[in-house]
Amino acid sequence: MDTAVxxxxxAPFAASLVIAGIHAYLGVHVVExxxxxxxxxxxxxxxFGATIGLLLPFTGNDPHSPVMYWISLVFTLIGAVxxxxxxxxxxxxxxxxxxxxxxxxxxxxxxxxxxxxTSEAEHLKDMLVGNILAVSWNxxxxxxxxxxxxxAFHFVFRRKFLMISMEPAKAEAxxxxxxxxxxxxxASFGFVVTRSVSIAGVLLxxxxxxxxxxxxxxxxxxxxxxxxxxxxxxTIVSALGVYLSLxxxxxxxxxxxxxxxxxxxxxAAVRPLIQRQAPGDVHQINYGDRAHSQARGH
Length: 298
Description:
The chain has 298 residues and is mainly α. The protein is built from 13 helices and no strands.
């Protein structure tokens, strides 16, 4: 690969690493909560907000303008408020059902709004699908700074966030407000998703969130190892996906998504060769490791 190609791929690869870094962590929470489609739903709500913004006269019909991000963010925060108020162990309707309904309605509403923005259909398609190859270094820097701020926020309050995700009953018993901390989680999640969708598109953002976390769960129940596995997988898949997209002249987002799927299948296939213990023993040991890790405050 010559220098010109490496220079061309540098910014997209950096952007994919930035996205993978924060989403692998957030994916741990999402999988533990059992709300797998919350990322997809919030991402679609953000896309719907951007579609509405495109129809407003003061946005200049530019889907990549800064004001479009803030309009999308407002819609995403509304979704965060909704999702944080429906969580209850005694609720008649599962939280995942509400999340799925929100995704379906936001998708349909986006299609309806798109029908009124025919002159900007191509720009809108690029914004919704994402084109990570077109990302600039300035966008990478702004995104990295935002994600560092969100990461620092989660690090400071990591015990609260981990408790409400992994042991909500214990959190309630200690007087922790689940609705408040759920809102803070979904709101910070909304900042990340809104930014990621504008760069990578809805499907790719979903894969960065879920696939590394699911792959990591094949090998460990402990938070530290799961994060390490997720970040490693995100880095390798990002590099491979961007490279294959360029070499095979394929859509970048779809290529990375399919690469995630193939790598996940490969990791599942080689797991029996790596994990020597019996399945029951592995689960028991991992559960003990996690309990020990939590006792130490990890």
